[in-house]
Structures are given as C-alpha cells and as structure tokens.
Amino acid sequence: MLLNVENLRVSYGNIKALHGISFTIDAGEIVTIIGANGAGKSTTLRAISRMVPVETGTTMTCMGKDLLQFPADKVVSQLGVTHVPEGRRLFGNLSVMENLQLATFARKDRDNVKKDIRRVFEIFPRLEERKAQASGTMSGGEQQMLAIGRAFMSGRRLMLLDEPSMGLSPLLMMNVFQALKEINKQEGTAILLVEQNARLALKFSQKGYVLETGNLVLEGDSQTLINDPEVKKAYLGG
Amino acid sequence: MTFNFLMQNLINALQWGSFYALIALGYSMVYSILMLFNFAHGDIFMVGAYIGLGVSLGLLSLFGSGAAAILPGWLLLVLTILISMFLTAFVGIIVERVGYRPLREAPRASAAITGLMIGIILETGNILFLGGQRLKFPQLIESVTYNVGGVYVTNKKIMIVLVSIGLMLALHQLITRTKWGMAMRAMAYDYVVVPLVGVPMNTIAAMTFAIGSALAAAAGILFGLAYPVLDPYMGVSFGWKAFVAAILGGRGSIMGACIAGFMLGFIEIMTVPAIMIINRLFSLNIGSNLRDLIAYSIVLVILIFRPHGLFGQAYSAKLRL
Amino acid sequence: MPLLHVTDMSHNFGGLQAVSEYNLSLDPGQITGLIGPNGAGKTTIFNLITGIYRPTRGSVRFDGEELVGKKPNETAAMGLARTFQEMKLWRHMTVLDHIKMARYSKLSYGLLGAFLDTPRRRREEREATDLAMEVLKMFAVDQFADQLVVNLPYGAQRRVEMARAMVIQPKVLLLDEPTVGMTPDEMMAMIEVVRQAHERFNLAIFLIEHRLKVVHELCQHVQALVFGQVLVEGTPNEVQNHPKVIEAYIGEQEVEF
Amino acid sequence: MEETLAPQQNGLKYRLGLFFKPVPLLAYLIGFLACALWELLVGDGLTSILGLPKMPVLFGLLTIFKVLAGVVNLAIKGEAFNWATLVHIPTALIYLFVIYLIPLAVVARATAKPANVLARFLHGFPLIVTALVQLGLMYAVLHIWAGVSDYRLITLKLTLIAVLFTLSLNIINGYMGEFSCSHPGFMAVGAYMSSLFTVGLFTSDKVLGEAVFTFSAAYLSFPLALVFGGAMASLAALIVAIPSFKTRGDYLAIISLAFLFIVKSFFENVQALGGSRGIAGQPDWATLPVIFITVAFGVWTINNFVTSTMGKALNAVRDDETAAEAMTVNTRKTKMSAFLFGAFWAGVAGGLLAHVLRYINPAMFSVQKLAEVLAMVYFGGLNSVYGSIVGAVSISLLGEALRPLEILKWIVIPLLLILVMIYRPTGLIAFKEFDVRQVFGPKEVD
Amino acid sequence: ADTIKIGFNIPLTGDNPDVGASSKNAAQMYLKKNPNVTVGGKSYALKFIYDDNEYKAESAVKVSTKLITEEGVLGIIGPQSSSQAVPAGEVANNFATPMISPWSTNPNTTLDRPYVFRGCFLDPFQGPVAANFATDELGAKKAAVLYDIAADYPKGLAEFFKEAFEKIHGPGSVVAFESFTTGDKDFSAQMTNIMMSGADVLFTPQYYSEVPLIVRAAKEMGWNKPILGSDSWGSGDLMGLCGDDCKGYYFSTHYAAAGAKGETKAFIDEYSATYGKTPDDVAALTWDSLGLMIQAIKDTGGLSGDIKADRTKVKDALAAIKNFPGITGGMTFTPDGDPKKCAVVVQINQDGQFAFHKSVCPK
Ligand SMILES: Nc1ncnc2c1ncn2[C@@H]1O[C@H](COP(=O)(O)OP(=O)(O)OP(=O)(O)O)[C@@H](O)[C@H]1O
Ligand SMILES: Nc1ncnc2c1ncn2[C@@H]1O[C@H](COP(=O)(O)OP(=O)(O)OP(=O)(O)O)[C@@H](O)[C@H]1O
Ligand SMILES: CC(C)C[C@H](N)C(=O)O
Ligand SMILES: [Mg+2]
Ligand SMILES: [Mg+2]
C-alpha cells in the first residue's frame, strides 16, 4: 500500500471541509475522487500535499512513513508525491525550461534530470517547441501540459491531479489523459485524480470514491461505479 | 573648467550611485523575490554599518593599528566586510522570521508596515544601546588621493565602485543562472505553490533576506569608509531612496535596480553641476538647492513615460488584499 | 444589418499572430458559438471586440457604430456585456454590490451626489438595488445578496458573474466558457439559464465553449477557430463532423463531455 | 454543507455583549455626557481624595505610564524611583472606573430604553435631524471633556485632524488599494495654501507681509481658507492622479513618493513662503467647534462617497480592474476622483493642522509623517471608516499616553503595531461598512 | 515640601538625540547640586520634567502645552533648535509661561514674545562676526558657503554671513553659495563647484555631525584653504568624529572649553567627571538658562502659589535680570528677551582642543 489515509479532517476557520474520510492507494494504481463542486476534493489533495493543516485524529502514511512528519516541500522531494493544483499555477515569469528545472530543485541525480526532461519533451512535443517561452503567455492547454511535466520532474511515486481536464479542448484532453496513462504504465506512477468529468475519470481509473460534502459516501472499482444508478443520476448526467 | 568639472562630478556620481545601487540591490532582492516592500532595509544597512564598526574596532584592538599593526589594513577591511556580512545576514534572517514570515498571507502593505516598524525598533534600539551620539567609522585603509589631470580620485572611491559592480554582477548570475535564483523568481510569482515542486520555501525566503542584508552590510561598511560618521537614522533616507531605485529599475529586475541606483545617484549629483552650467549659459541664478525637486521630477517623468520602470515588464498585479 | 459586425480583424502579440482576418456577423437574437483548440485565439477575440486590446487591423461595428478605439467601459455601456473565462469577480464585494456596480454607467447623480448623499442619489441607488434584486432572483442567487462572493459555491459564483453582465441590459452577451469546471448537472442548469436569458430579452449571444454538448444545445451557428483563423463555420453538426475540425480539435476517439 | 462552530454561550464577554446589546449610540452619548459632567463636578475632589498628583487627563493612562516609566528607569538606569507613586496605578484605575466606566455603563444602560424611543422617534425624520442631534450631543461631550485642560484640548484637536487625514488616505490605500505615499505632500499643500490665505490676507507677518484686509469678522473666511487649501491640494494631486491611469501598484507608489520629495523640496525653496523656516502666526481660528464640524463633515462626505455605487467602483477597480471596465465602470474617472477627493480632505486636514499649531515648516511633512499616517490606516483597518477612526484615535492617544516612557515609546508602539499586523493583517476593523442610519438609529433587540 | 517644577522641551529621540541628552545631563547635574531653592525665605524642592519633542515642530507644540497645562511647570527650558523653539515659543507666550531656549539663535524665537527668552546670541550677530573674522584674520576676499537649506539655523546663518561678507567686499564676493538637504552625506558635487569658484575661505554653519563629512569631501577635492564654522560645531564629539581632518580650522561659538577659568572650568570639570566627556555648547547653555530661570524665580521675592501669577512674576524678573554671571558669559536681556553676549572664536588646535582665539562683543 502506497498511501493510507485515515480519518482525514480539515477545516477552514469555522468551515469544516472534510469530516474524517479514509481511503487507500496502492502503488501504480489510478484512483479517482468524484463529487460536486465544494465537496472537498481539492481539499483532500491539499491535505495530502500538506498545503493545508489537518485536524488532530488524522493519520496519513506514505510507504509506511508518517506523512504528517513531512513539510510540504519534503513530501515532494522525499516521498515523491507531487500535486498538480487546480488552475495549474505555473511560474508564469519563468520559461518552460526553467519551470521544469526548478522542479528538480531538491534532486541530487543530475544525470537523470536531463533524461527526464527529454522524456517530458517526448510526451509533450509542444513544450519542446516553446522551451524558452515564458510559461505565463502560453495557452491553457499548453500550460496544463507543462504542469504535468513539472510534476513529472519533481517526483513520480504518486501524482495528485486536480481537474486536469478543466478548460481543455476535447483533443487535448485526450492527449493529456493518454500521456498520463503512459506515465502511469511506464514509470509505475500512482495517480490520484480529481475530476468533474466523472465519466471520463471513472473510465480512466481503476478505483473510485464519491465525495459528498466532506464525507466519502461510496467507493468501489470504477466499472461498478459507472454502472451504479445513484452515481449515474448524480454525476454522469442521467 | 568644463571637462574636468564634468569628469569630477561624474566620478562623484559613480561613487554616490554605488551606494544607491548596492542598497537598492539588497532591497530589490527581497522586493523582487517576496514582492514585499522591505521598509526595514535602510535600517538593516544602518545595523550593518554599526556591526562593521564593532567588528573593525574589535579587529583593530586584536591586531593593532597604525605602526603596531600585525595585519595590513586592506586585509582587516576584507575581514571586516566578510564577518559583518555574515553577522548582518543573521539580522536579516531574524527580521524575516519575526516580521515577514507571519505575514506571508497578509496584504503586502501590511508587511510594509511591519517593515517600517521593525526599522523604527532598530533605530530606537541603537539609541538605547549606544546613546544616540554619532560614531566615527575607523579608516582601515589609508586614503590616497590621485590627481588625474585635475580630477581628484581617491583609492576608496575606486574600490567602492568596483566592489559594488562586482557584487552586482555576482548577484545577477545567482538570480538568473542558478536553481536558487530560479526558486527565488518562482517565489516572486506565486509563493503558494513553491513547496509543491519540492522547493523549501522558508529556506529560500530566509536566504533572500540573508543575502539582501549581507549586501546592506557591505554597503554600510563601504559607506563608513567614504562617509565616516554613523548615526542611528542614517538608513532612513537610503531606505526610501533604495525603494525608489528598486522599483524604478523595474519589478523583478536585479540588474534594473542596480542601474536605477546608479542613475538615481547620477541624477542627484549631476543636477548640481547641471544647474550651474545652465546658470552660466543663460546667466540665471537658480540655486543648487533645487536638487531634490529636479531629481525627483526626473524620476517622475521617467515613470510617466515608462510606467513599468526601466527594465520591468508590464504587469497588472495589485496589492494583495 | 447585423448587430455586431466584425470585419477582417487581426491582432498580434509581439511576433505571434493571435488572430488573423477574422470576420463575424451576429444578428439580434442569434446565438453563435466559437470553438477551437486551446490557444487558438478565442479569448483574444473577445478582448478585441470589447476594447481590452485594440486590433492591429480591421473593424468592429456594433449597431452601426465603430468600436475600435473605444474603451471597455464604453463598449459595455453601449450594450456589449461579457463574462470571463477565469471568472473575474471582486473579492471584497458583496453579491448585491456586484450587480449594482454594473449599473455604473446608468447612474446620473454624479460625484457631487455621491459626496453629499442627495435625494437623487438615494433614489437612483434604491432603483438600482431593486433592479439588482430582481436579476438576482432570476439567477437564483438572491439568497446570497449580502454575502461576499468568495463565500459562494462555485456554480453560484458563475451565475453571479452572468447576472452582473445581464444588469448592463446588453444587446449582445459574450460568454467565455460559462460551464468550465462544472459537473454535468450544473452544466445543464447553466444551459437553461442562458436559454432563458436569451428568450426573455431576445439577446444575441456569442459563446466560447469546449463542451460540445453546450454548443449543440444552444447555438444555431458555430465557428471553429484554429491558429487565429476560422477554419470552418456552419451549424453545430456541420462543424462537428468536419474532418478538419476533428483533426485539429475533437480527435478521433469517442469522448463524452 | 458548512457547519459553523457555535460561539461560546457563557463567556463573560458574551454576557457583557448581551447586556449592552440594546444600548443605542444615543444612550452612550448621554452616558459620556454624564461622565464629562460628573468629572467636572467631582473630578478635582476625587483626585485629591485619591492622592493623585493631578487630575488624570487621558483616562489615567498618562498617570499610569508615568509610574511605569519610573520603574523602567529604575530597572535599566538605576534612576531613583519614588515607590510611593506606585499607588497611583490603582488610584488612577479607580479614577477611571469611578469617573468614566461605571457611570458610562450605568447611565448608558439605564437610558437605553428612553434613548431607543427617542432614537426611533428621530429616525422618523430625515437622517439629518437625528445626525444633528447626536453630533450636537457628541460635541457637547467633547467640549466639556476638553474644557478641563488645554492639553486635552490640543490632543483632541490633533486627534480629530488625524482622523480626517487617516480617512482621506484610506480612500486611496484602502478603498482603491493603491499604496500612495504622497499624502503628507497633499497635507503640506493644504497647510501652506490655507496659511497663505489667512496669514497673507488677514495677518501682518514678516514672511507674507502686511495684512491685506483687516476686519473683525475675518475668521468667517476660515472655511474659505480651508476649501482653498483643499482645492489646491486636489490640484497638486493631479500630478499623481494622471500617471495612475497608466501604472499601478508599486510604480504608482514611487511616483507618489517622488511627489512627496518634490513638494517638500518645493516648499523648502520658495522663499516667498518662508522656505525651510516656514510660516508662523496663523490666526487662532481652528477652534474645537470649527475642527469638529469640519471633521464631521469630512467623515460624512467620505462615508457617503465610499458607500455609493460611484465610490464602490474604487473597490471594483482594486479587486479587478479589467472586470470593472467590462462592467461599464469608468476607471479613469474613478481613480481621478479618489485621488482628488482624498487629496482635498488631506489638504483640509493640513489647513486645520496649520491653524492649530499656528506654525508650519516643510520638515513637518516628511516621510516620518507618512510612516505615521500609514501606521494609522493599516492599524485601524483598510477599507473602513470605523477603522480609520479607531486607528487615528488609538495611535494618537497612545502616542500621548506613552510620552512618559520617553524613548521606549518607540519600541512599544512599533511592537504593538507588528502584533496587530500579525494577528489581524488587514487592521483592527477592516472591510466594514459604516452605515450612518444604523449607527444613529435605535438598537432593536429581538 | 512645596515643589517648583521646571519643564524641559528637548529632543530625546529623532534626528538629534544627543542634543537632548546633553541638555538632560546638564540639568541633572544642576539638580544634584541644587536640589532645593529658597524663594522669599521659603524652601522649595526643584523638580525637572523632561519631555521628548522628537526634534519635530508638531511635537514641540504638544510638549509645551503638556508641560504648561498638565505638569503645571513654572517655566520651560528649551527647545534647543529654532525649528522647534519658534513654534513652541508661541505656545509658551500664549499661555503666559516663561520659556528660555538655550541654543536657538533664530531671531523669530523671541520676537514679539515677552515670555520667551534665550540664552545665546543671535544669528544676525554671529553672521557678521564670522564675516569679519574671515576678512580680518584670514584675509579672505572671496568666500564660499555650504549649508543645509532645509534646516532653519544653517540657512539663516548662511544668509546673514553672506549679507555681511558682501557688505564688506561688495556684491558677488560670496562666489559660491551651495546648499544641500538635511540628511545628505555626499557633498562632492557642491565641493566641486566651490573648488571651481576660487573662494579663499569656506564658511559652513553645519552641525558637528556633518562637519567631518564636509571637511573630508573638501580635502578629497584638494581644498587646502581655511574652513570657518559656527556655534553648531562646538560639540565634544566633533573631534571624535573628525579626527585630524578638522585641526586648524576656526569657528565662532558661545564658549571655549579649553583654557576656561573660574566657574566655567568648575562646570567643565564636574561635567567631564560625571559624564566622561567635555560639555558641549548645549550643555553649557542649558546650564546657564537654568541658572537664569532659577535666578529669576529667586528674584520674584516669593511665590504666591497661584501658578499663573507666579509665571508672570518670573517673566518680569527674568526681563529685569542684569549681568547674570553665566559660564558662557554675562547676560542682560534686551526688551526682546535676547541676551547681549559676546561670541568667541576658537581654533581647533593640534591637540584637538577648542582653543580660545578671540572674543567679539556686540557694540
Ligand atoms: N481557502 C479556503 N478558505 C475557506 N474555505 C474554503 C477554502 N478553500 C475551500 N473552502 C471550502 O471548503 C469546501 C471544500 O472545498 P474544495 O475546494 O475542497 O472543493 P472541491 O470539491 O474541490 O470543489 P471544486 O469542484 O469547486 O473544485 C468548500 O465548502 C469551500 O467553500
Ligand atoms: N497578453 C498576451 N501576450 C502575449 N501572448 C498572448 C497574450 N494573450 C494571449 N496570448 C497568446 O495568444 C494565443 C491565443 O490566446 P487566447 O487566450 O485567445 O486562447 P484561447 O483560444 O482563449 O485558448 P483557451 O481555450 O485555452 O482559453 C495564445 O498562444 C496565447 O499564448
Ligand atoms: C545647532 C544649534 C547651534 C542650534 C541653532 N542655534 C538653532 O537655532 O537652531
Ligand atoms: Mg476543487
Ligand atoms: Mg480562452
């Protein structure tokens, strides 16, 4: 088991966002969380990447280590858990290349870095064309590619993806998901995917969870969930 | 008169500009990386100068001065600069820890206020501990004046200009070429996600303050050599003017800040001879006292025509509220 | 004569030709869609029409009047309202204030009225509040009137943005990806809202979307934009099945949105 | 979807809050009036009974800090300290309670009902009626309170001016979200121009020459002088306002800072205005009622402005300028009006200041003044009329009350501000709308 | 016992905290020596209240008001610098409270203010003293002036000097009249102008803290002619800051510490013993002003206890004082409240002491 989350509780001030959810991710597995707007999906990812503090009672372990002992940057550099946040959040003033290089800040294996960059360019040839462009001026889809590439560079035991399809054209969306699948297959990277587009997400993943107002209400393998009438009604548009 | 006169003023302007440049550099470090007005920077410069004073006095008493000196003056100077830069870096780190880190999420202007307040505390602390009287900075190296065809240049002036240009180039390399520099720029753009790519944000922020403060210390010591009277408020006007230079140079541009620093020094010094020349040419009687008025009108006009500074790119960010 | 008429509009950023030779004619009450890959220049076209950028070449006519050279607040006051892809709301303002703000150009009490709280100001402010509440009701966000927008659920924020645009009483509404980030449910609700607004005010709407379902439901006419140029235009079905569009935009696989 | 944590139902604070909930402003004013009269009546007597050296003028704070300063001096410098004065701390507190807190609480609570009735009655009339009644009452309170000591009077005058000045800066830095550094410059223009008006026209003076007019009712022209000062400040503000169309944020901050340097240098150099020596001998026209009325009027118009849709456009421009433009907001007009309006009131505040101090020189309008007013704005709270009032009053009072600490004052005040910034980054009372009707109105309790 | 309170309106923080410190030192020394004063046969304990004016005009006004109305002082010593003394004098005069500014040399401080006095000579006197000295003893025909335009005192004195010098040598004989702004550290541009002007002497009425920088800038530009200063040079710290650079230059001042005799010497010795440094002008003048104030209080022949009446009595007594034997010279007030005092010109000798050179008395 790669990641084990138990009784995850998070609040923002007076607002309770997560009421104690538990789930697991195995190595190399693709897991999806679906849910309505404001259900707490992003919050879950933020809690794992230690961007928001969790409340007492929460336990999270990654490869047997207590995740809560790691600050946000060490979660990435030492545990290999990377987070592609909602809205991409690239460093717009840095060039494409610099964005990729920065992601290797804490890495010691210089030789592999070069190889990995080449790998990213193979997956997303568009990025190589735009190597020197300031990332802030790229279009939404290009930015999404770079965000994934950046995550790829910083560690790839587990990728936390927050709505990667948002705002992407249909073709590009397929490309992105294909690339993700490829990374998953070739590198054995586990993926925790959060998506509004539930059908796509469930098709893409092996296991799914349904989050409703801070509680996990349903879980199962994705195929089952797709056919679940409740899920169908609520999340797949009838 | 004219050529010598202009050359002389040019050299003066270079030295004066070096201080603005060095201080603006440190200011701009913090400013362009954390996007914070570090209004305490001028006072850190002051603290750096006083630390330099303490260190150099300590060294002098250890190694003797004048005829009894064991080590040559220039070596003491280098030691003083290095030790003081190191010590002042810690002051910077403390300032970051106490005054800025807790405010990282806050509006930038609030951090500006904390900076102002830390500055006041540093000034007052100085008065409390040292009693507020002016102190003399020891002249570690013998001052030598060269007369180059009627233009007077001192060895210190040359040294000051060279050291500041050297530091500026080194810093430019650091920011544009290294991973640290990249991380700093990334932080300027969006500090929230910096940890998400595995970069230790607090370390970067502390480093930034440390480097900025170390530069201020270097500036403080060079300043002490050139203008050997130290007082607790010596950093105030420098602080504000470095603020002007850092932004005039263009947001996020270290080089720009430096050049703007030189330029500001240049404008301030050169308005005096310029007024004089205009007076002669048109037999007017404008006083050199109009210097600030003219100098800052020039700054204002530059900004009206280059609304994003000399080297800055257009941006629409506003105060984080 | 079309209500909004764009002819041969081009624009470039530095060396990048973002939009070239773009044409559009939008009649009153018509809904036209604009699709295209990311970075094709769709949002840029909106920005050019509304005056945020000034086109390098070409003309934009609205109701017979030239828009090029006009500032965004002027084009908006003429009846050209828009929403933003990334939803530009004012963080520190309440929902009600958002809506009232869009009445800015209709206020006539002037600065002196603002300073001195004249009866005229009070009357106009009251009228604006009444109208705002009505519109908020229409978009089902009236219960949030006194809250800051940041505290609203995402879908409600989208609707507030739309309501804000509607208060301008526009003749043309420009919508930039109104359903982005929505669940299928919310998407359907949004389609309904747009349709109602359209029917009630006989609005002309110009819509950017990546979700073809939305385009299908709403548009009579669609343009497909690639690299700043219109590749194909026609009915949604024509465009969607056009091989070039499939190649550049939709892809071969069957995907649902 | 969201659960809010229930507030504590049994804390002392909560119960006190409940107790005072039905008390309208009117009742507090009556309470304060009672306090002021009570002090007039028994203040001196109580002072001597308690053995205080002097009637406490700033609610006993000054007395207490004087004692504390003695202790501090003993501790750090070994200066002699009269231990007997320690008793002044409890006695000053007793004074505070007996003269202010207890009567205020009792009277305010006791008159809450009739005051509510009265407030509701007044509420039936146009706003101006209740406003005038309550402001009149407020003035009476201040008048009586300040009548006790001239030190109180000058502190009060300067505090009122600080309120106006702070609020006028809040328009730009808080409501519009720019970081403007030019405000002391606007104040300087106002101070100089109104002095030019009064000293130049009505007073014989070494700098500005013989009086042009002399008549006994000359003071009636004072409002004109203030308006003139404010208008000139507005005019000067154009220099900062026009670049604000093109540039924002930090660049605007240094444009405004350059403006401040220019203004200061200008007044230093214009010999006709006294140069660095300044102008002295302003007539003594800035009396408490004049200041009170001006400040009240200023606060009223500023509050009107920022609560109107016209004024809220400032917020829209601050939070997202592109969206504001797309929503028909004329951003140029908005920025321009904010700068000119803010500068106008800063200029008026400058005019008042010049006539309270009856002396001005360019050094008064330096970056130090800037730091001071920035501190007041950010301490009190951005985007809030309440905030500016609280910020200006508390920092002004604190500045006076901590005087006995001498130099340590400049450690204590900055520390306090840092703490406030850390725990309340937008200031004490930020983003709160000041609803005049509600403030003056009755407190309805369900 | 009854007390008499004297207030001090001095800068303990702000740009010149050492001025406040010197004043406070002198006052504390005085108090230690004279804790009580007998007026009309009755003994009173003296109490001094030091309030910080932050070297700001606004604050000086507040402090004066506070001292008078709050602390109930009988008289005020200070402020020291004219930029604070001018506005504070207005307050003292309005509240009919005697005030002595020890060090303010600007004419406006006392003008038309019967309650305001000073302990030093005025700039219109000092300016000609310096001009004459430059002419007679330094043989100057052309003079340069370098001064701070933003500070009241240097600017005033620079103008008085210019007027006096040009009266002797004709218009245009002040060949360079260069200025800078408070806080400036670099004077090279101005010095370059001065070098080019061909002046025989440089007059710079600046504070002791700026003098070393000016002198240094001058030397670095190759200036080897005399430099002449004013009373603001006369701080014990000048030599500590200036070192050898300042030796040999002259300045006009209130008293010369080196070689002083009698009372003055006693004061200097005691001060040096207590605080470890030579008293500067401010200290000496504060001491004298305090002496004047106490003398006047004694001269009233008895206090009534009604503070308002007593203040007026003190003022009248002050105005009537004749030949007060101050350590900085004898003092008698003119109707304006200014003492007729001699100025001293001192030279900074090779030991770094301020050696008496000559004394110039008003006619
Ligand atoms: N920074 C914040 N401060 C306060 N409340 C927040 C914050 N971020 C999220 N919330 C609240 O927490 C809850 C969960 O939010 P979260 O962003 O995790 O939802 P989500 O499922 O990702 O929704 P979406 O589909 O809109 O991204 C919501 O009620 C939201 O309003
Ligand atoms: N201000 C700008 N400066 C430089 N380039 C820009 C600017 N704005 C947009 N671009 C570029 O112009 C192209 C078109 O951008 P635009 O935002 O119009 O795309 P879009 O069609 O809306 O894409 P998406 O569907 O991703 O929103 C992109 O390549 C983008 O990088
Ligand atoms: C600097 C001192 C000599 C004070 C000066 N005399 C003044 O009037 O301000
Ligand atoms: Mg989310
Ligand atoms: Mg777009």
Question: How would you portray this structure in words?
Answer:
The complex is a heteropentamer of chains A (238), B (321), C (257), D (446) and E (363). Chain B is mainly alpha-helical and 321 residues long. Chain B has helices spanning 2-34, 41-63, 73-100, 108-130, 155-177, 179-189, 201-226, 234-249, 254-281, 291-305, and strands at 135-136, 145-148, 151-154, 229-230. Chain B has one domain: Orthogonal Bundle (ABC transporter involved in vitamin B12 uptake, BtuC), CATH 1.10.3470. Chain B has ten helices and four strands. In chain B, helix 9 packs across helix 10. Chain B is globular. Residues 316-321 of chain B have low confidence and may be disordered. Chain D has 446 residues and is mainly alpha-helical. Chain D contains 18 helices and two strands. In chain D, strands 1-2 form a two-stranded antiparallel ribbon. The relative contact order of chain D is 0.14. Residues 1-7 of chain D have low confidence and may be disordered. Chain E is of the alpha/beta class and 363 residues long. Chain E has helices at residues 17-33, 57-71, 82-94, 123-136, 152-169, 188-197, 211-220, 238-242, 262-275, 281-299, 307-320; strands spanning 3-10, 36-39, 42-52, 75-77, 99-101, 116-118, 143-148, 174-180, 201-203, 227-229, 250-253, 324-326, 329-331, 343-348, 354-360. Chains B and D meet through helix 4, helix 8 and helix 10 of B and helix 10, helix 15 and helix 17 of D. Chain C: InterPro entries: AAA+_ATPase, ABC_AA/LPS_Transport, ABC_transporter-like_ATP-bd, BCA_ABC_TP_C, P-loop_NTPase.
Which helices and strands occur, and which strands form pairs?
The complex is a heteropentamer of chains A (238), B (321), C (257), D (446) and E (363).
Chain A: E1 3-12, E2 15-25, E3 30-35, H1 41-48, E4 59-62, E5 65-66, H2 72-77, E6 81-84, H3 96-102, H4 110-123, H5 125-129, H6 140-154, E7 158-162, H7 170-187, E8 190-195, H8 198-204, E9 207-212, E10 215-221, H9 222-227, H10 229-235
Parallel strand pairs in A: 3-8, 3-9, 6-7, 7-8
Antiparallel strand pairs in A: 1-2, 1-4, 4-5, 9-10
Chain B: H1 2-34, H2 41-63, H3 73-100, H4 108-130, E1 135-136, E2 145-148, E3 151-154, H5 155-177, H6 179-189, H7 201-226, E4 229-230, H8 234-249, H9 254-281, H10 291-305
Antiparallel strand pairs in B: 1-4, 2-3
Helix pairs in contact in B: 1-5, 1-6, 1-7, 1-8, 1-9, 2-3, 2-4, 2-7, 2-8, 3-7, 5-6, 5-7, 6-7, 8-9, 9-10
Chain D: H1 12-20, H2 25-50, H3 61-77, H4 88-110, H5 112-123, H6 127-147, H7 150-175, H8 183-202, H9 222-241, H10 249-269, E1 279-280, H11 288-307, H12 309-319, H13 321-326, H14 331-357, E2 359-360, H15 367-380, H16 385-401, H17 409-423, H18 436-440
Antiparallel strand pairs in D: 1-2
Helix pairs in contact in D: 2-4, 2-6, 3-4, 6-7, 7-11, 7-14, 7-15, 7-16, 8-9, 8-10, 8-14, 9-14, 11-12, 11-14, 12-14, 15-16
One adenosine-5'-triphosphate binds at residues 12, 15, 17, 35, 37-43, 86 of chain A.
